[in-house]
Amino acid sequence: xxxxxxxxxxxxxxxxxxxxxxxxxxxxxxxxxxxxxxxxxxxxxxxxxxxxxxxxxxxxxxxxxxxxxxxxxxxxxxxxxxxxxxxxxxxxxxxxxxxxxxxxxxxxxxxxxxxxxxxxxxxxxxxxxxxxxxxxxxxxxxxxxxxxxxxxxxxxxxxxxxxxxxxxxxxxxxxxxxxxxxxxxxxxxxxxxxxxxxxxxxxxxxxxxxxxx
Length: 213
Ligand SMILES: *Cc1c(COP(=O)(O)O)cnc(C)c1O
Hints:
By secondary structure, this protein is an alpha/beta fold. The protein has nine helices and eight strands. It has helices at about 5-15, 35-45, 55-65, 85-90, 100-115, 140-145, 170-180, 195-200, 210, and strands at about 25-30, 50, 70-75, 95, 120, 155-160, 185, 205. An eight-stranded parallel β-sheet has the order 7-6-5-4-3-2-1-8. Helix 4 (about 85-90) crosses helix 5. It is globular, with a radius of gyration of 16 Å. Pyridoxal-5'-phosphate (PLP) binds near residues 52, 190, 192, 207 and 209.
């Protein structure tokens, strides 16, 4: 699948779900892909990108961002507290807030750097041991901490469903949680299942593999 094919599939999914394509942001995930490959996507009109590792992102995006100041960069990986400073310096959106400790570190860094980045809370909808994200039952408490004590600008929720599960239940759960918390944005859906995510209300789909196949 190429970039135009992904855009077409996204538009068709929106149409099938009775939604306007403008409601869904394609986050092009470019981990493990070179600056030249990223340039090719930018040349085709892509403006929102996602990376999951700070070091890799800093090396590639430092120069790219100088050339393309209108790009928006989302951090979608596991974030260690000691990398909060670099994440706040490089990214426009943090999608993976999953603990009070991280929320507090991000808030302190944003204050220092004079920024207020939109954030998502990552929810571990499959309650997998090895996966980042707060447990669904603890999402509300973390949300309240982020908004209250930390003063973060929480826009929505993000999830990565377990690999071998049917994703629909996870998308439905994330949608339900976001309604309970009064949040607008939902980052869910990847190459294999972003059509389903759009049917369940995704506002951001994170697509990597399909863009480069
Ligand atoms: C790599 C990655 C994606 C993209 O997955 P594909 O299956 O390559 O589309 C989406 N979200 C996160 C958090 C990722 O790490």
